[in-house]
Specification:
Layout: E1 3-9, E2 18-26, E3 31-35, H1 40-43, H2 45-55, E4 65-71, H3 83-93, E5 105-107, E6 110-111, E7 117-118, H4 123-133, E8 138-141, H5 145-149, E9 156-160, H6 163-169, E10 184-187, H7 208-220, E11 224-227, H8 234-239, H9 250-262, E12 276-277, H10 285-289, E13 290-291, E14 296-297, H11 299-302, E15 307-310, H12 318-322, H13 325-330, E16 332-336, E17 341-345, E18 349-354, H14 373-380, H15 385-389, E19 393-396, H16 402-407, H17 414-432, H18 441-447, H19 452-465, H20 469-485, H21 493-501
Parallel strand pairs: 3-4, 5-8, 8-9, 11-18, 11-19, 12-15, 15-18
Antiparallel strand pairs: 1-2, 2-4, 6-7, 9-10, 13-14, 16-17
Helix pairs in contact: 2-3, 4-9, 7-17, 7-20, 19-21, 20-21
C-alpha cells in the first residue's frame, strides 16, 4: 500500500487536537516533502527519520517520491514529537509495518539517528487531555514520557525504547503481532509515592503573628504580602508555606503536573507535592504569566495549585506585576497572539515579600532608617492600588531581638498547623464546594452570615479606611476563614476585627 495514516497529537496549551500523519509513496524523481504548517524542528524530522530507519536495518524508499502531510494543514505543528509517526507512516506505506494494526494507537516521540526514542514535552498533558475526552486509544511513547502519561488513571500507555520495538509490535501478517522486544512494555496504571515533607515551620523562631496569618491564608486560599526589614524571616516563612496547605487531591496533582510536563519541568520525585515557584525579580511579564510563540506557560501556571513566591516584590518590573491582576481574580490566563491563542490554569497562592523602604529599615526599632520620606513614598508607590487590593492579607513583620532569636523555644510544627488548615478547608468545601477565597457575590452573602454588631463594625472600618467594594469582600472572605478555623458558623466582631488588621495599607512616613 502506497498510502498510510498514523495518528498523533499536537499540544496547544493544555488542549491536544488530533493530527493525522498522511504518508504517500509515489513514482517519480526521488524526494522527501513535508507539508502541513510545520515549524523548523518538525521539518528537520526528514533527516532524523531517514537516518533512524537506515541505522535500524530497515529499508528506506530512496527511489520514491515521499510526501508527508500533517493534517489539518492550518494547525501549527512544533517539536520533534512527530518523528515516530512519520517513520511509522513511511514504513507502513512501504509494507514493512501493518497499517491496519496502527488503528486505535497514537504515537509521539523524537528519534535519534540510531533509532532510539527520546522523550517529548507534555506527555502528561497529552494523556490528561485524552482522558478528559474519554477516547479509547493506546498511547505509544518513549521512556520518560510514558511514565508521565501512565499517571493518568485508566489510560493505556505503552513504552517503546527503539524504533525496532514498535516495528516488531506491528509486523505485517494476518496473525497476532510478533512478540515485541524487551523495549516494548505496557505500563500498568499506578501512582508513585508522595514526595517527602519539606521544611518545618518550627524552624522559624517567634513571628507568631506572621504564622497566624499564614495559617489563615493556607486554610482559605488567600494571598499574603509580608513587609519587613531584611533578616526578619520573610523568606523562611514563605519557603515553608506550601507544606501548610492541605494535601493535594489526585485531580489537583494531575493538573499541576500536566502544566509542568508541558514546560518540560515535571519530575516524579515531586509527585503529590504542591509546587513553590520563586522567580527572580528581573523576570519579565512573559516569564511570569506566559507567552511566546507557540505560547508557553509562565510561572503563575507552573505554580497551579501551589505557591508563587515573589521576593523583593517592588523590584519586579511594573508591567510584570500588573499582569498578575486578572489571574489573581480568575485563576486562569489567556494568552492571545496573532496566530494562536492558548489558555492555561493559574490557580495559585501569591506570597509576596518586600522591604518597607530602599534601605529596608523604615519603622525598625533595632536600626535607623537612612531614607527620606520622599524616597519611602516613591518606593512603596511602585505597587499600584489595584494590585494591593487583590492581596488579601497585608502583614508587617518586625525583626527579632538577639534574645528572642536565641531563647524562644521551638513553635508548632508544620504538621500540627496543616491539620488545622485541612480541617478548616474541609469545612468550607463541605459547605460551599470551594475555598473561601473563591466566594463572590450572592455566595459570599449566603455563606458568610454575620451578627448585627459585626456588620456595624465592618461598615465603620470600611468607611474609616476608605476600602473599595473588592476590599470589603476580601475582608469578609478572610473573616469567613477565621471563623472556620474556630468552628464558628456565623461571623462575629472578633472575626471581622482580626480580618481588618490584615487589610492595613503600607505604612508611610507620617502615618500610624
Amino acid at each position: 500500500m502506497s498510502l498510510s495514516l498514523v495518528q498523533s497529537r499536537v499540544l496547544m496549551g493544555l488542549d491536544a487536537p488530533a493530527v493525522t500523519v498522511e504518508v504517500h509513496l509515489a513514482n517519480g524523481l526521488p524526494s522527501f516533502t513535508l507539508v502541513g504548517l510545520a515549524h523548523t524542528e518538525v521539518k528537520e524530522a526528514r533527516e532524523r527519520v531517514r537516518s533512524a530507519i537506515q541505522n535500524a536495518g530497515l529499508a528506506f524508499p530512496h527511489n520514491k517520491r515521499i510526501t508527508v502531510n500533517l493534517a489539518p494543514a492550518d494547525l501549527p505543528k512544533d517539536s520533534g514529537r512527530f518523528d515516530l509517526p512519520i517513520a511509522l507512516g513511511i514504513l507502513a506505506a512501504s509494507g514493512q509495518v501493518d497499517a491496519g494494526r496502527l488503528a486505535g494507537h497514537e504515537f509521539a516521540g523524537e528519534l535519534s539517528l540510531s533509532g532510539e526514542l527520546r522523550p517529548v514535552h507534555g506527555a502528561l498533558a497529552l494523556s490528561l487531555a485524552l482522558h478528559d475526552r474519554a477516547e479509547p486509544v493506546t498511547l505509544v511513547l518513549p521512556p520518560g514520557s510514558a511514565e508521565e502519561a501512565a499517571l493518568v488513571p485508566d489510560m493505556r500507555v505503552v513504552r517503546a525504547r527503539h524504533l525496532l520495538d514498535v516495528v516488531a509490535a506491528f509486523a505485517p501478517g494476518n496473525g497476532p503481532a510478533a512478540a515485541p522486544g524487551a523495549g516494548w512494555a505496557r505500563l500498568e496504571p499506578g501512582l508513585p509515592p508522595a514526595a517527602p515533607a519539606g521544611l518545618d515551620l518550627a524552624d522559624v523562631k517567634g513571628q507568631s503573628a506572621a504564622k497566624r496569618a499564614l495559617e489563615i491564608a493556607a486554610a482559605g486560599g488567600h494571598s499574603v504580602l509580608l513587609v519587613g526589614p531584611p533578616g526578619s524571616g520573610k523568606s523562611m516563612l514563605a519557603q515553608r508555606f506550601a507544606d501548610l496547605l492541605p494535601p493535594m487531591r489526585t485531580e489537583e496533582a494531575l493538573q499541576s503536573a500536566a502544566v509542568a510536563s508541558l514546560a518540560g519541568q515535571f519530575s516524579l520525585a515531586q509527585w503529590m507535592r504542591r509546587p513553590t515557584r520563586t522567580p527572580h525579580h528581573t523576570a519579565s511579564a512573559v516569564a511570569l504569566v506566559g507567552g511566546g510563540s507557540p505560547p508557553r506557560p509562565g510561572e503563575i501556571s507552573l505554580a497551579h495549585h501551589g505557591v508563587l513566591f515573589l521576593d523583593e516584590l517592588v523590584e519586579f518590573p511594573r508591567a510584570a506585576l500588573e499582569a498578575l491582576r486578572e489571574p489573581l481574580e480568575t485563576g486562569r490566563i489567556a494568552i492571545a497572539r496573532a496566530a494562536r491563542r492558548a489558555e492555561f490554569p493559574a490557580r495559585f497562592l501569591l506570597i509576596a515579600a518586600m522591604n518597607p523602604c530602599p534601605c529596608g529599615y523604615f519603622g525598625a526599632t533595632h536600626r535607623a532608617c537612612r531614607c527620606s520620606p520622599d524616597q519611602v513614598v516613591r518606593y512603596q508607590s511602585k505597587l499600584s492600588g489595584p494590585l494591593l487590593d487583590r492581596i488579601d492579607l497585608h502583614l508587617e513583620i518586625a525583626a527579632l531581638s538577639p534574645q528572642e532569636l536565641l531563647d524562644t523555644p521551638a513553635a508548632e510544627s508544620t504538621a500540627t498547623v496543616r491539620a488545622r488548615c485541612s480541617a478548616a478547608r474541609a469545612l468550607a468545601m463541605q459547605r460551599q464546594g470551594q475555598c473561601n477565597q473563591a466566594l463572590a457575590g450572592q455566595e459570599l452573602e449566603r455563606h458568610a452570615p454575620r451578627t448585627e454588631e459585626a456588620a456595624r463594625f465592618l461598615n465603620h472600618a470600611a468607611a474609616r479606611l476608605g476600602w473599595s467594594a473588592r476590599g470589603i469582600h476580601r475582608a469578609l472572605r478572610v473573616a469567613r476563614t477565621i471563623a472556620d478555623l474556630q468552628g464558628s458558623e456565623r461571623l462575629d466582631t472578633s472575626h471581622i476585627a482580626e480580618a481588618v488588621q490584615y487589610r492595613r495599607a503600607l505604612r508611610s512616613p507620617g502615618t500610624g
